[in-house]
Inverse folding.
């Protein structure tokens, strides 16, 4: 099975990336935009706050998907992503936290 490479732009996810890499040997997670030295064959890009813009996309050879974590995607150049025919998805992170906070509030 071929290794799939994913660029995780935000360094705060380095520990989680290492944990996932151990569980999924066919997945190579490169965490942190400053570690972007080899730009070949990234299947996807994951970002929470780091910019996904023309400059970054020009450095990447062939990403297929851009995944934004969070509700606001102001840091994503959506027009550039669409112009390149890439898939764009956003994963809202606030929903489960709000439900948990409400549940704890009701318990208290």
């Amino acid at each position: 099975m071929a290794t799939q490479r994913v660029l995780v732009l935000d360094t705060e996810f380095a520990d989680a990336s290492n944990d996932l890499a151990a569980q999924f040997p066919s997945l190579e997670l490169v965490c942190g935009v400053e570690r972007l030295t080899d730009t070949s064959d990234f299947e996807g890009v994951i970002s929470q706050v780091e910019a996904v813009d023309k400059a970054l996309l020009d450095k990447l050879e062939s990403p297929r998907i851009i995944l934004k974590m969070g509700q606001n995607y102001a840091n994503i150049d959506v027009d550039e992503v669409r112009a390149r025919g890439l898939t764009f998805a956003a994963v809202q992170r606030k929903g489960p936290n709000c439900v948990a906070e409400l549940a704890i509030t009701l318990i208290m």
In short: The two ends are 50 Å apart (CA to CA). The longest strand covers residues 42-47.
